[in-house]
Amino acid sequence: MSGIVLSASVRQNLLSLQSTAALLATTQNDLSTGKKVNTALDNPTNFFTAQGLDNRASDIGNLLDSIGNGVQVLQAANTGLTSLQQLVNTAKSIANQVFQVPPGYTTKSTTTSTALPAGSTSTNLVDGAAIKSGETLTIPATNAAAGDVATSFTFGATTSLAQLNTALAANQLTASLDSSNDLVITTTNDAASSTVGTVTLGAAGTATFAAPTAPVPDPVSQSTRASLVNQYNNIVTQITTTAQDSSFNGINLLNGDNLKLIFDETGKSTLNITGGTFNATGLGISSLTVGTGFLDNNSANAALATLNTASTTLRTEASALGSNLSIVQIRQDFSKNLINVLQTGSSNLTLADPNEEAANSQALSTRQSIAVSALALANQSQQSVLQLLR
């Protein structure tokens, strides 16, 4: 082959044909792969830049799975909070029913004064010498746990029954005169299960008070109230189990777990969500005991106060949870959009334009045909010389 000598025209046409064939092969490869930069040899800068963009898009895409799980954890907790709020509202409804049933006692606790003068009236309790003006009536708190302040009432020259009742109201007591004009102090319906404390006078007088009588339960009413206690306790149990069941993939923000989400490939952009304990104990809700729970309005009011506090706690947590869920969903959408931006940038650096490559392929095919024809013509000139030699 080393001894073969090609003419300048043949060699030139052959080189042109080889160059066109190489370009045509490259164009056809671009069309088949869809890329104009397939290796670092094609364009080192674009190749490695695109690779970096694709790697980052892939890393963020991997984080999307954990972000998606985080969204589900938050939604599970939010579903649990909604159910817990409904259960608390149901418990409130049960407690409110206590006010609708008859008092739990046929007779409430009373204490009665003795030696009041005949003719005393409800408009002048100190008419006469039975209770002297300036004497102080003292009664211990009916229910110290509920915040009653003990009664201390000083009689004036013309103390009325209305004035005395105003003073007794804060202690959940009421005063009246019986048929003998004796002063009777009785618990209100709110404190129907309580016994009136021992009544004393602060100075020597002719009036004394008998030992307080205990309230007499009403079996029918107490049976109804016992049923309400059982219903209430069932709700309390459901509050605990609902909080325990509000988990996703082993994470329960309503049962003391925490959630950490990572939003970027460097691990520097994170969100830490602290959970809490929202079972009955965590909400401060306790089961009631038949025979002591819902005996009177006071016990119902105490339960309602606890439930209102629990409701406020749940609403506060729901607000915080909703805010965190919004943040996570925004970051989830941001990550999806960012992946699209990165992949689009990578594509702009490496992908081929099908229209342009198709046009190039057609042009190169035409050039190749021309080069083949030119090479044939060059060969023909050499054939003519050969003919002369013959």
Task: Please state the structural category.
Answer: alpha+beta
Please identify, by name, the CATH architecture of the largest domain.
Up-down Bundle
What fraction, in percent, of the residue positions are helical?
Answer: 40-55%
Strand content: 5-15%
Strand order of the largest sheet: 5-6-2-8
Total strands: the figure is: 11
Biggest sheet architecture: 4 strands, antiparallel
What can you see in these coordinates?
This protein has 390 residues and is an alpha+beta fold. The protein has 2 domains: 167 residues, f41 fragment of flagellin, N-terminal domain (Up-down Bundle); 113 residues, no CATH class. It has 6 helices and 11 strands. The strands form 4 sheets. It has a 4-stranded antiparallel β-sheet with strand order 5-6-2-8. Strand 5 and strand 6 form a beta hairpin. Helix 1 packs antiparallel against helix 6, helix 2 packs antiparallel against helix 4 and helix 2 packs antiparallel against helix 5. The longest helix has 54 residues. It starts with 7 loop residues before the first helix and ends with a helix.
